[in-house]
Amino acid sequence: MSDLEIVNRKFNDLNVCVIIPTYNNGGTLAAIITDVANYTKHIIVVNDGSTDDTVQIVRSFPFVDFISYPKNVGKGWGLRKAFKHAIVKNYDYAITIDSDGQHFANDLPAFIDKLEGVPNAIIVGSRNMDQASIPGKSSFGHKFSNFWYKVETGIDCPDTQSGFRLYPVQLLKDINFITLKYEFEIEVLVRAAWHGIAIDSVPVSVHYEPKETRVSHFRPFRDFSRVSILNTFLVVIAFAYIKPRDFFRSLFQKKKSKQAFFQQLLSLDQPPQVIAFSIGLGVFSGILPIWGFQMWLGLAIALIFKLNKPLVVIASNISIPPMIPLIIFLSYKSGSYWMGNKTQNMAFSTNLSIKSIGQHLQQYIYGSITLAVIAGLLAALLTFTLLKLFKRKAVSAF
User: Which of 13, 164, 183, 398 allows an S-S link to 125, with CB 3.0 to 4.6 Å?
Assistant: First the structure.
């Protein structure tokens, strides 16, 4: 049995189809379909309102499952339509490949091989973005998108903008997506991760035509704007709901909640700098002038940088009621450094409260940020020094 026959059988056994979204790519579409058909005949082409000869081209391949609608809506809408169609056809997985010729069908076996090791995951085809032929806007968008994806999910993904992917479509059917254009490929990755779907990757080749002959429907200003708006929306949801949800889920799992909490809290096998930074971050966020949100900010940062979250939460409670008068007083004192001749003196009193902040607010804000930085650094430095000292004594005693 040849290699192509083996791959073809795996497509059948694993119940995988290939989705080709297209919009006015008549010059390359036939070649893409022909190349993909060498590996599988389970092909779905979705025509997003093309005005060229796309319809005639696809109809020349009678084995292709064809979805077509007259008005161009966007790549995201086309993929969503194709996913629903694949689900109706009872496919478990769908590999998406662009129709403009930048992807190569001979990378399809790599997705199948990866799928056998990581079932039920989204597998992203990771491009080599260091090639000289990569357009500058693509390189920038690649780094921009990867950064925000890490912020929103805590997951490293090497190429969040690649359109060459394998999707477990049956696991996506209950997610209600909202985007219609290129930004859908960001939304689906983020929201899939929030639903617990694993994200993996496999290296793939990529080809970009020279600038003079390159056909692209990506509009930098409009599409980057849409992506930026989407990322803003996703970051708000991540910090306000997803990250706190995941944190408390990890703490309050049945039977293991207390054990997990104390195991993480007392995980002395963590590097001293991680423990020290966790405590320093907690103290820093606990003093910041964002009363009511201090713990949540510290927790969100801890989730992003994989710090000791219970330690951050505990240290952020430096702003408990008995400490509030002292924090407010020291904040005003620290703020005097920045106010110059406008400095207002405040006498220390146990009656100082959050209501006192309204008096000379600017001095308090400047001072509380200054105090937060200094106290956080001192807490981290003191913790690190003590951990190193205790470790040295433990080694000596042993």
Answer: 164
- Name the pTM for this structure: 0.65
Domain of 271?
A: 257-397
User: How many independent structural domains does the chain possess?
Assistant: 2
Are residue 90 and residue 186 in the same domain, yes or no? Answer: yes
Exposure string of 149-162, with b = 16+ CB inside 10 Å and e = fewer, is bebbbbeebbbbbb
Q: How many residues does this entry show for the chain?
A: 398
Specify whether 271 is located in the same domain as 218: no
Determine, yes or no, domain membership for 248.
Answer: no
208 shares a domain with 265: no
Same domain, 51 and 145: yes
Q: Are strands 165-167 and 121-126 parallel, antiparallel or unpaired?
A: antiparallel
Question: Is 334 a domain residue?
Answer: yes
As a whole number of Å, the end-to-end CA separation of the chain is 63
- pLDDT tens digit at each of 398 positions of the chain: 788 999 999 999 999 999 999 999 999 999 999 999 999 999 999 999 999 999 999 999 999 999 999 999 999 999 999 999 999 999 999 999 999 989 999 999 999 999 999 999 999 999 876 654 455 445 556 777 888 898 889 898 999 989 999 999 999 999 999 999 889 999 999 999 999 999 999 999 987 665 544 455 555 556 667 777 888 888 878 877 887 777 777 666 655 555 554 555 445 457 888 888 889 998 999 899 887 788 888 888 888 888 888 788 888 888 877 788 888 888 888 888 888 778 877 777 666 666 666 667 888 888 889 999 999 999 999 888 887 776 665 445 44
Nearest one of 41, 66, 71 to 55, comparing CA atoms: 66
